[in-house]
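Researcher: Please translate sequence to structure tokens.
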Amino acid sequence: MARGDIDPDNLSQADISTEERDKLVAEMMRCMLFKIHQHPGVPVRREELTQLVTKNYRQRNLPAVVITQAQKKFASIFGYEMKELQRSRPSKSNNVRSSQQSMTDSKSYILKSMLPEELRTKLVENKETSHFLGLTFAVVGIVQLAGGKVLEDILWQYLRRLGLDEHDEKHPHFGNVKQAIETIIKQRYIQKDKVHGPEGDVIVYELAERALDEIVNGRLKESITQIVKQDIPKTEASEA
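Model: Translation complete:
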């Protein structure tokens, strides 16, 4: 073990007691809960969590130990998975210019209920936010069907077909529609990048790490398949 590394089962090597560790874990859990409450659905950056440890401790691996313990306690006490997200890289291109590029390798965390989907839908999910979840699903679906990347103009063309206009600031469910899309970006379902093309700069939307999650991706593909199956009989009937 390299100097400065910490064995999670032998904290005496780090001159930190179990009480100190538990205090750090509790502080990190409070930070997660506060951030999630303050900005629902927006991942908490790893840097924000590790600063809670590094402001008073210099042991290199101690933040990872505290995060691991916080994950275990969220699961055992609250029934939440403190899920780590790895920020997606923009598509490889020498012409991509985005502030996100400097953070492509940064990690963040969200809290996900560990209840089975049926119980989670019935007992946990907030029905008041169901419209926004539907919007998120629609946007991710459009980007998914476009091959994982779509031009901004094309995205808005499809959203206008759903009755959503980028200039609408008083939508009955979403308020400012453009701000709603920005919230989906902050929640890391999609990411926005500026690309320099032959006709100038264009905005491109791509799937981000939460949309690439195996469960979310699987549910999306299943729903798209069901929609296609429902449309096939109608098409055949119209051709008959």
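Researcher: Any highlights?
Model: Residues 128-232 form a domain with the Arc Repressor Mutant, subunit A fold (CATH 1.10.10.1210).
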